[in-house]
Write a structure and sequence with these properties.
Blueprint lengths: L1 H7 L4 H11 L9 H12 L18 H6 L16 H6 L15 H12 L36 H4 L5 H13 L9 H13 L5 H9 L5 H10 L2 H14 L18 H13 L3 H14 L20 H6 L5 H23 L18 H10 L4 E7 L3 H30 L2 H15 L11 E2 L10 E19 L1 E3 L5 E4 L4 E7 L8 E6 L12 E19 L1 E2 L4 E2 L1 E2 L1 E5 L11 E4 L29 H13 L4 H23 L4 E7 L19 E3 L7 E4 L23 H12 L5 H16 L20 H13 L4 H9 L12 H6 L12 E2 L2 H12 L2 E2 L11 E3 L6 E3 L11 E2 L13 H5 L18 H9 L1 H17 L3 H13 L5 H14 L1 H9 L2 H4 E2 L1
Parallel strand pairs: 18-21
Antiparallel strand pairs: 1-14, 2-11, 3-8, 3-12, 3-13, 4-5, 6-7, 6-8, 9-10, 15-16, 17-22, 19-20
Helix pairs in contact: 3-6, 9-10, 9-11, 12-13, 14-22, 16-17, 18-21, 19-20, 23-24, 23-25, 27-30, 29-30, 30-31, 30-33, 31-32, 31-33, 32-33
């Protein structure tokens, strides 16, 4: 080495530089930690190695955690890459890390190597969180503008009835397709009746429409159906699917939710009134704030709380336990999912444990939405359906609170003058007034039962050191067993002794009642003068026991030892006895000194005298003017209370509530939002920081921050979110609603994922059509009925559902709507149609749900027994929208027909074709009963079997039977009766499918 150094001193400068380049290693540029290293950790590591999960004991959230290492020791040796386990884990053809996802690239590995070599510089303030997507370049986040109508050929223009057709025809032309021929009128009236009302047309209505020559006959039919009350009932069911409405709480106990139905009625009423959509949404999120005196203001908020309620977690689990926080987190998660999935079709709940993997929604965005609902709970609250009554009640309550406050302030001023004397009088009176008529749960001491009253029993108090006693008080027990009541178990004969030794060999008797029977004291207290004796033990011995029924006992409510200063010393002692029945909480040795015993008002013979003494002293403290003011305020308070009692009793609704009677550990917030924290990995055990209420910042021109004057105003938070959702600048809201309506009319949506407009959802088949309908809906009154007209009056809707080879080959799934989709009726529509056809449908609207089951054991975990319900003898059969819906035990008949699961948000129903459905339609007791009623109604109209079958076809299917159909059914009717003909018709494909 030295020689080399010396030689180099004689070399030329150029040669020296060349040699230096070959002997000194190249120093790589230090990577930028936040720009180059952090993204690697975010993409490959932080999901598993964070402060919450710490897989392998390792967290890479902070510099401190990374340097501490994990279960296998340190992973970072700053400056020495070769000794850093981090690199060992990620290099090689099959690297050990990351466990999931793609391995690190060579470039990423080299970045980490150079970073470690450069000293693994990590600014202490930098905490690594999962990466958040910031890419808003997605169709659903783009501003909503109305596109121009596409240019069409003359032939295509002739097929256009509404702008809907222009967009569909233009798309069909590109695919080389065209519309199918129009449906016949019998098919069309049946289609539109079920679409708008969920019920079939009658034979007379079908015949009238078929024969109507008015060119506007169909348009008038649509208007008439939209004006029908049946429309709101039909379309409310779609909305209730979205919000997973039910009439029970769900979870393991699944208790009844008796007053959920006012929300269901609100939805029906709103749809029938064609309420502007923005108002419809705003009322459901904050109607109690925006419209507190309206018929719907409070009941509309049933939307937020329509989902399940964890009875055990909310009511039974203590506030101190982590399980309570978990329960509330999950409860708010359901609220957030319900509101955001339904109104804007965003799966924000995917950001509960980490930033959304596909959409620009961060964990903080998600928990900020939770904070919107942090001041409410799922509970019953009172409301007045009549707006005038609601306003009147609010006015009276305000005046009453003001008057009571004034009275309290003046009364407090006067009482302050009474000082200690008034406090003593009040305390004495309170003790008297608190005397109970009856019995608490702690009765006292109870000996073992004996067959003879001659068996002696004793109970005693053992003090830790000698005490001086002025007075001993024996308080009898109270138990209604065998109608004994007061004085229960008090011995016929007894003695009271004190001693300084526990064996009582040198005891002093202070009361002896062993020579003759002692009268039962009832509720009276037995006082014994202790003469200021000093002792460490006191014993009561029963020498003749009290009779019970066929046996004998010794019982005592309380044994009190009073010192000369009046203090009861008993609580300082330990209770022992010869024997005891330990049956807590009622009977126990410890109950003898717990201060809890039966009392009666008669015990306080001077109660009225005590009251008068207090009142006289209180009166002496106030001036004449003050007395007058108190009297006037008292009179005013009484009058206000009287006026409040005259108002109709408020009704109850299960809705978003801030004030309700506490139940167990379930207590109202009184409008004060609970703190909501950003949770690491969604764990309540790892809160990071408290978040403020806001919405996501993912729409240009629509800030998510809420400009609240008072951030703790619970109602203002919900109002702000309602306005954010219904903002004209929020394209998601209007696209979402139009897409849903399209789905219910055509059986397939323009966007096939109605609850997910994010990047994992489907893209629209007709984006311009979607935007055209959404912009018109938003800008032209937000009328759902107008939107229906635009769709229903289109040529597309009026097409035949018949297929053709060209269409099947080019668009087998019919996404381009070259024909109408044939659709299966939902469970509710099938049931309602059967009821109408059989003549049993009751069209009474609104009110509590009808229970199609027998309820047993409702107090604990209710049993919902559908097999015990007999539809043949039921008093009434209303539409299925009025069913009492149970979460845990769905109606077997409705479930077999693909009814929505009320425990899940249901953006679109799953359609199945199973053997079970055919069996249910044929053999379920409901179908059998209604087939009998159907047959009876046919027989009442005609005695001829052929006429009966013809009328059955017309009523159920809207047409006459074909000759071969008639022949088969005549044979069946002759052999098995008309009721079985009816069963077959109601089980036909034609009955449950709509062309």
């Amino acid at each position: 080495m030295w020689s080399v150094t010396r030689q180099t001193q004689e070399l030329t400068p150029l040669l020296a530089l060349c040699l230096l380049a070959t002997t000194v290693p190249t120093i790589a540029a230090e990577p930028d930690f936040e720009k180059q290293v952090v993204p690697i950790f975010q993409q490959h590591c932080i999901r598993c190695h964070n402060d919450s999960t710490k897989d392998g004991g390792l967290s890479l959230e902070t510099k401190q955690g990374a340097l501490a290492g994990g279960e296998n020791g340190r992973i970072l040796m700053p400056g020495v890459a070769e000794e850093s386990l981090l690199l060992d884990y990620v290099v090689g053809p099959e690297p050990e890390m990351p466990k999931k996802g793609e391995p690190l690239t060579k470039t990423e590995i080299e970045t980490l190597r150079n970073w470690i070599k450069a000293g693994a510089v990590w600014p202490p303030a930098v905490r690594i969180q999962e990466a958040q997507l910031n890419d808003n370049d997605w169709w659903s986040f783009q501003p909503l503008t109305q596109p121009p109508l596409p240019e069409l050929t003359d032939n295509e223009q002739q097929q256009v009835r509404t702008p809907v057709d222009a967009f569909l025809l233009a798309r069909l032309r590109k695919a080389g397709l065209n519309y199918s021929p129009p449906a016949d009128r019998r098919t069309l009236i049946r289609r539109v009746y079920f679409d708008l009302t969920g019920l079939p047309p009658t034979p007379a209505e079908i015949e009238q429409f078929v024969q109507d020559s008015d060119p506007r006959a169909y348009e008038k039919l649509v208007d008439r159906l939209l004006a029908s009350p049946r429309y709101g009932e039909r379309w409310a069911r779609h909305w209730l699917d979205l919000v997973h409405y039910a009439d029970t709480h769900g979870y393991d106990k699944d208790k009844l939710r008796e007053n959920a139905w006012p929300y269901r009625d609100y939805v029906i009423r709103s749809l029938n009134e064609d309420r502007p959509y923005a108002q419809f949404i705003q009322q459901q999120i904050a109607g109690d704030i925006l419209n507190p005196f309206s018929q719907d203001g409070v009941s509309a908020t049933g939307f937020i709380v329509a989902g399940p309620f964890d009875w055990v977690g909310q009511i039974e689990i203590s506030e101190k336990l982590i399980e309570k926080k978990i329960t509330r987190n999950l409860d708010r998660d359901d609220m957030v999912a319900t509101v955001m999935n339904t109104t804007v079709s965003l799966t924000v709940q995917c950001a509960r444990c980490h930033n959304h993997k596909f959409d620009p929604i961060s964990q903080e965005d998600y928990y900020s939405l939770q904070a919107v609902f942090a001041g409410i709970d799922r509970a019953e609250r009172s409301y007045d359906p009549d707006p005038e009554t609601a306003s009147r009640r609010k006015t009276l309550q305000t005046f009453l609170e003001q008057s009571q406050s004034q009275h309290q302030r003046l009364d407090a001023q006067i009482r302050k003058r009474g000082g200690g004397k008034l406090e003593r009088l009040e305390a004495e009176l309170k003790r008297a007034m608190n005397a109970k008529q009856g019995q608490g749960v702690e009765y006292g001491y109870h000996s073992q039962v004996e067959k003879s009253d001659k068996t002696p029993k004793w109970v005693q108090l053992n003090f830790k050191q000698p005490v001086t006693a002025e007075k001993i008080t024996l308080i009898p027990a109270f138990d209604n067993y065998n109608n004994i009541g007061a004085g229960f178990g008090f011995p016929k004969r007894f003695r009271l002794e004190v001693s300084n030794t526990s064996d009582f060999k040198s005891a002093t008797t202070i009361a002896d009642h062993t020579q003759q029977d002692y009268p039962n004291p009832g509720t009276s207290h037995i006082q014994t003068d202790a003469g200021q004796k000093k002792f460490q033990y006191i014993r009561m011995t029963a020498t003749k026991l009290a009779p019970r029924s066929n046996d004998f006992i010794f019982a005592l409510g309380e044994l009190q030892v009073f010192a000369p200063d009046g203090k009861n010393l008993s609580s300082q002692a330990q209770v022992t006895s010869l024997d005891s029945i330990e049956a807590a909480p009622r009977w126990s040795r410890q109950n003898l000194i717990d201060g809890k015993y039966y009392q009666s008002l008669e015990f306080y013979t001077d109660l009225s005298e005590l009251k008068q003494k207090r009142d006289d002293f209180l009166a002496s403290l106030s001036t004449g003017e003050e007395k007058k003011s108190l009297q006037q305020l008292s009179a005013k308070i009484q009058q206000l209370q009287s006026n409040l009692k005259k108002l109709p009793d408020p009704e109850k609704v299960f809705a978003a509530a801030t004030d309700f009677p506490a139940q167990g550990n379930f207590r109202p917030t009184k409008g004060q939002p609970r703190p909501v924290h950003l949770l690491s990995r969604g764990s309540e055990k790892a809160p990071i920081r408290e978040v403020a209420a806001s919405a996501p910042n993912l729409i240009d021109g629509l800030p998510g921050n809420f400009p609240l004057r008072d951030p703790d105003n619970e109602g203002a938070r919900r109002v702000a979110l309602a306005h954010w959702i219904t903002s004209r600048n929020n394209p998601l809201t209007w696209r979402s609603l139009v897409n849903r309506v399209w789905l219910y009319h055509f059986g397939k949506a323009i966007v096939d994922t109605p609850n997910d407009f994010g990047k994992m959802g489907a893209q629209p088949t007709h984006p311009d059509l979607l935007d055209y309908l959404a912009s018109r809906f938003r800008d032209e009154g937000q009328s759902l009925k107008d939107l229906h007209r635009l769709i229903l009056l289109s040529t597309a809707y009026q097409q035949s559902s018949r297929t053709n080879p060209a269409g099947s080959e080019l668009d087998g799934d019919n996404r381009l709507l070259w024909r109408m989709n044939r659709r299966k009726l939902e469970a509710e529509a099938i049931r309602d149609s059967v009821l109408q056809i059989s003549g049993k449908l009751d069209l009474e609207m609104y009110g509590p749900g009808d229970r199609l089951f027998v309820l047993e054991k409702p107090q604990h975990s209710p049993h919902y027994l559908y097999r015990k319900y007999d539809p043949a003898t039921a008093e009434r059969h209303r539409r299925s929208i009025y069913r009492f819906i149970v979460r845990s035990v769905p109606d077997p008949f409705m479930e077999s027909l693909d009814c929505a699961d009320p425990s899940q948000l249901t953006p679109k129903r799953i359609e199945t074709l199973t053997a079970l459905q055919a069996l249910s339609l044929l053999n379920d007791q409901f179908m059998i009963s209604m087939s009998v009623f159907f047959a009876e109604s046919l027989e009442a109209q005609s005695a001829d079997l052929t006429a009966q079958i013809n009328h059955a076809f017309q009523t159920a299917l809207g047409r006459s039977p074909e000759p071969d159909e008639l022949k088969i059914l005549q044979t069946i009717g002759a052999q098995h009766g008309l009721k079985n003909v009816c069963r077959l018709i109601l089980n036909s494909n034609e009955f449950i499918f709509i062309d």
